């Protein structure tokens, strides 16, 4: 008997069907993965199981959702609101994709976790806070007592996700729905979260419905897989069988688009002249903290040196909070460095005044992680993609639409979209618009900060293919920032590994990935999910800790072109 049975489920938003005749079972104590691209109906299905879909403007238009309990089957689609409140968070719980939007920013972590115990276990405030502390401890939260009095913004992404898991598991549910719980996390935090879910699943015997578009995560955690496309199930089976021989063309497409570590890197450009040189760059922030709100300085980037050749891609990889984005912004002086040197095409960026810096930025453009947030929603496409060209006087108002059409064609979009607005495009199309905008001034360098981390695997593949094509055609250099090491390998000639504000290892991509010398690099590689269920790891041992870089330690050449921090083991 399965724990949950979904039969012929239909979910509609107005006249649009988001889920069509969907049927599947979640086995008792097992893990079923729902996979598919954005818009395939994964999250709509999850919200329907908890009957939260009505709050999102949708409705269950047909079918049944049955929870098989000891006292008999329960038809969730027929429950009234009081019965649903008793079900949610108690027998069925959910971890949402973005913890920062799911947690209340004005309530402490302790109060939010305690609320679950007050509502479902009818505990007093004191009892609930004690239970909340134990719940945080159960999800391996460091220093759980101190976390009770902290607010969500004071925690990292990984710690916030642990709070969400603690809340979801507080009442030891029979079914846990995990909706993209690791998508925005770096590989080490992702490995810890997957490890945690599997350990707790074995400990309390719950079933898991895991929703993701990351096939590596599916291979690591799932027993069975259901592939969705446009609201319909196109394939279902045991994970090992589907991975070994996917039958549907769409499943095959997902597998082919998934980046796999070890697939190789592009050939390095021969004798590339230096375009960018960074020497001993330090960027410092002043923060307030402590009982007296004392001001103190934190080095987000500390003594970083790197170089980038023409038509070359340097992949910058590291955990969230290691300083990758701060370094990228410092190079363009969007964040002001405290010290160090930056040469762009032979020009001193650090000494440039306001006018000179503006001229320099014509040659160095940036593509941000969230394309929707970086596009003005009030401007049509022909204004958006030509904006840098207008600022730098490259195009006249008369020629603006012609330039827009040329740029759109260069990134694989049709000319007839020039009058559309950002909300009328998919995530992948919006990222193409951002790349087109960067190309409008014919830059020599593009800094791409997590440009594909929020995209589906097939869309991410299209964007990285586009960047490789542009590099070959236009000779553009890329500083490519990502926490996905398989993507970094695919696009990068060289790799730099960043840890706690410093570069701890750098060199040719294959040298770093096949012969990692620094403990932190080895830790990153050990965390990467394998896309082969047969090679699934047990996830029973915590990843080894890595000590902070020693002050004053320098990079030494361990092999030709391959450098590592001196204090590495």
TrEMBL record:
It is found in: Cell inner membrane. The keyword Zinc does not apply. It holds the Pfam family ABC_tran. CDD domains: ABC_NikE_OppD_transporters. GO terms for biological process: peptide transport; transmembrane transport. Residues 4-255, 276-525 form the ABC transporter domain. InterPro entries: AAA+_ATPase, ABC_Ni/Peptide_Import, ABC_transporter-like_ATP-bd, ABC_transporter-like_CS, Oligopep_ABC_C, P-loop_NTPase. GO terms for cellular component: plasma membrane. It is a peripheral membrane protein. It comes from the Bacteria. GO terms for molecular function: ATP binding; ATP hydrolysis activity. Keywords: ATP-binding, Cell membrane, Membrane, Nucleotide-binding, Transport. Belongs to the ABC transporter superfamily. This is ABC transporter ATP-binding protein. It comes from Aquibium carbonis.
């Amino acid at each position: 008997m399965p724990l949950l049975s979904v039969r012929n489920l239909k979910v509609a938003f107005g006249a649009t069907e988001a889920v069509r005749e969907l049927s599947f079972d979640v086995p008792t104590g097992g893990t079923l993965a729902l996979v598919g691209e954005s818009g395939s109906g994964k999250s709509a299905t999850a919200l329907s199981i908890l009957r939260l879909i009505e709050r999102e403007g949708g409705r269950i238009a047909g079918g049944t959702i049955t929870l098989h309990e000891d006292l008999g089957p329960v038809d969730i689609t027929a429950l009234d609101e009081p019965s649903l409140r008793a079900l949610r968070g108690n027998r069925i719980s959910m971890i949402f994709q973005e913890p920062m939007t799911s947690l209340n920013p004005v309530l402490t972590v302790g109060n939010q976790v305690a609320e679950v115990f007050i509502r479902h276990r009818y505990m007093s405030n004191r009892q609930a806070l004690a239970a909340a502390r134990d719940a945080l401890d159960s999800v391996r939260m460091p220093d759980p007592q101190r976390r009770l009095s902290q607010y969500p913004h004071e925690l990292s992404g990984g710690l916030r996700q642990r709070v969400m898991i603690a809340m979801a598991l507080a009442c030891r549910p029979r079914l846990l729905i995990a909706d993209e719980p690791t998508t925005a996390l770096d590989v080490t935090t992702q490995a810890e979260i997957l490890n945690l879910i599997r350990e707790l699943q074995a400990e309390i015997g719950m079933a898991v419905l895991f929703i993701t578009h990351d096939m590596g995560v599916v291979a690591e955690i799932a027993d069975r897989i259901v592939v969705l496309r446009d609201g319909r199930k196109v394939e279902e089976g045991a994970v090992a069988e589907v991975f070994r021989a996917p039958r549907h063309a769409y499943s095959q497409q997902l597998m082919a688009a998934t980046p796999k570590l070890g697939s190789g890197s592009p050939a390095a450009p021969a004798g590339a002249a230096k375009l960018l040189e960074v020497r001993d760059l330090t960027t410092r922030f002043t923060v307030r903290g402590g009982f007296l709100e004392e001001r103190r300085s934190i080095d987000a980037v500390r003594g970083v040196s790197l170089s980038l050749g023409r038509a070359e891609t340097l992949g910058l990889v590291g955990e969230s909070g290691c300083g990758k984005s701060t370094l990228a912004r410092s190079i363009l002086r969007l964040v002001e460095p405290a010290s160090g040197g930056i040469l762009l095409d032979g020009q001193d960026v650090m000494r440039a005044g306001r006018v000179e810096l503006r001229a320099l930025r014509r040659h160095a453009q940036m593509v941000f992680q969230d394309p929707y947030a970086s596009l003005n929603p009030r401007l049509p496409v022909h204004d958006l993609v030509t904006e840098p060209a207008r600022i730098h006087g490259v195009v006249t108002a008369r020629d603006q639409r012609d330039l827009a059409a040329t740029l759109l064609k260069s990134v694989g979009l049709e000319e007839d979209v020039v009058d559309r607005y950002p909300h009328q495009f998919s995530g992948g199309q919006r990222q193409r618009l951002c790349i087109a905008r960067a190309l409008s001034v014919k830059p020599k360098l593009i800094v791409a900060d997590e440009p594909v981390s929020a995209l589906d695997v097939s869309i991410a593949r299209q964007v990285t293919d586009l960047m490789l094509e542009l590099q070959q055609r236009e000779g553009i250099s890329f500083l490519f920032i990502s926490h996905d090491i398989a993507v970094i390998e695919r696009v990068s000639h060289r790799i730099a590994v960043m840890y706690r504000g410093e570069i701890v290892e750098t060199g040719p991509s294959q040298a770093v990935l096949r012969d990692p010398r620094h403990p932190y690099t080895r830790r990153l590689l050990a965390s990467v999910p394998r896309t082969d269920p047969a090679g699934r790891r047990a996830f029973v041992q915590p990843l080894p800790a890595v000590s902070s870089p020693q002050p004053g330690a320098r990079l030494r050449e361990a092999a030709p072109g391959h450098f590592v921090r001196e204090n590495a083991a």
